[in-house]
């Protein structure tokens, strides 16, 4: 048999690429960036492998969803970062050093998505696009027409890099500002690639419009903000269509701080709200005839799930309402404020973790990212914003 | 309608393999088929009484790999929950080896194309790395620190940029 042609001895070790094997091992470290960050300190070879763009692409493909590293909060006096794992690193120090010239010197968080944070000056005259991992900052001047006469404003940041092939940290990002003025609602988009604002879109509101402060939900190619009067502002940024839609009847009584627009796992618009200590999730589903209706998907008993204090004569936790203070849509993780502090709850596994003792966090901005090597971003000098690069 | 008890193509034939240091091992063909390299050689009709020579796999790791493949081939499909649990326990004990053996298994499993074992050894190595400081990792894996002090300082600064060490957020409360 061994005389048969084609029989061979398997190749020798020299043909095995140990780099490939080491890369396989490094891929399987937990997705929190601190693990790769520390591994890159071992030796030059490990560092070279970890910083390789091909490796970083595989890392994103392997883990798929970046981990929630913490959240930002507009604390009085300065913006703050609260890590969900680990001791506060440079991101925390950087967040608290975000200062600007003029008026109160503050930048206020408005939104955070795809590894980017969006901040605004108090008067909305300027926006700051900030990449906490690379340190890249871009100052954006808001056109006058979006400032004068606008009563409420809100904004979104997102990037359109497609999945694992592109990294949001090195891709252009988009900003959309929405505002209300004299019975109309407006939206306008900014692209960092061309460094310019697009066309101002608007639609009429049948009754006075008040935009809620909470960040929007991004579903497909549309952004959704909550508006008073049981309405939702939808901006389809691909087709540039701006509309007001209705949210389910009977929810008017839900306290404003207990309701959020979210993206559900199957990429549909959802409403998350807390009523009687239950976290309800409703989905906006499109029926065969093209109409849409709201369907209840889940209800999670937060007072049974979370370790909230109880008293002899009943539930202490009932003395203080639960707020939904943040939602990480890619990770399907909700941040809730309870009488016992802020908890991060995975809606998929129902695992939870206490991340702050604060009782005052109304809105937080979850931040998620994979490992990004320093020097990966093209930083603007930000000089016209009065920002100093560190 | 005949009960299909055996996997198609299974035979009771024993496959012989020879380690780089000349030791002979035997395993059922179903076990050998878990190695891509061995499967190709069996398909090419190269498995004979003399045994398939594995020029770069020494006897010690090869004995382990034969154990692994024999165990996994015997429980390849239609596992009950208990059997799956048992196989998991087997894997967990199997991979509790020193770093020399782990390295041998990593390289040998990769070379022989034993996917399950390769993943097991890769994950075990990652688990060993994750809880260690850079210095501890150098010691564990016999790596020389080839950074100059200046480079090290620079990289430490860069490392500090994002995160330092992972610990529960007890300091927050």
From TrEMBL, chain A:
Entry-linked Pfam families? Beta-prop_AT5G49610-like, F-box
SMART domains on file: FBOX
UniProt-listed InterPro entries: AT5G49610-like_b-prop, F-box-like_dom_sf, F-box_dom
What domain of life does the native source organism fall in? Eukaryota
- Record-annotated membrane-spanning stretches: none
> Domain named F-box: which ranges?
11-59
Q: What protein name applies here? A: F-box domain-containing protein
Q: Which organism is it from?
A: Oryza meyeriana var. granulata
Automatic annotation (TrEMBL), chain B:
Task: Cite the SKP1 component POZ domain residue spans from the record.
Answer: 14-73
| Superkingdom assignment | Eukaryota
- One Pfam entry for this protein is Skp1_POZ
Keyword set, alphabetical order: Ubl conjugation pathway
Q: In which pathway does it act?
A: Protein modification; protein ubiquitination
Q: Does the keyword Signal apply?
A: no
Assembly behavior: Part of a SCF (SKP1-cullin-F-box) protein ligase complex.
Family of this protein: Belongs to the SKP1 family.
Function of the protein: Involved in ubiquitination and subsequent proteasomal degradation of target proteins. Together with CUL1, RBX1 and a F-box protein, it forms a SCF E3 ubiquitin ligase complex. The functional specificity of this complex depends on the type of F-box protein. In the SCF complex, it serves as an adapter that links the F-box protein to CUL1.
Q: What is this protein called?
A: SKP1-like protein
In its UniProt entry, the species of origin is given as Oryza meyeriana var. granulata
Classification of source organism: Eukaryota, Viridiplantae, Streptophyta, Embryophyta, Tracheophyta
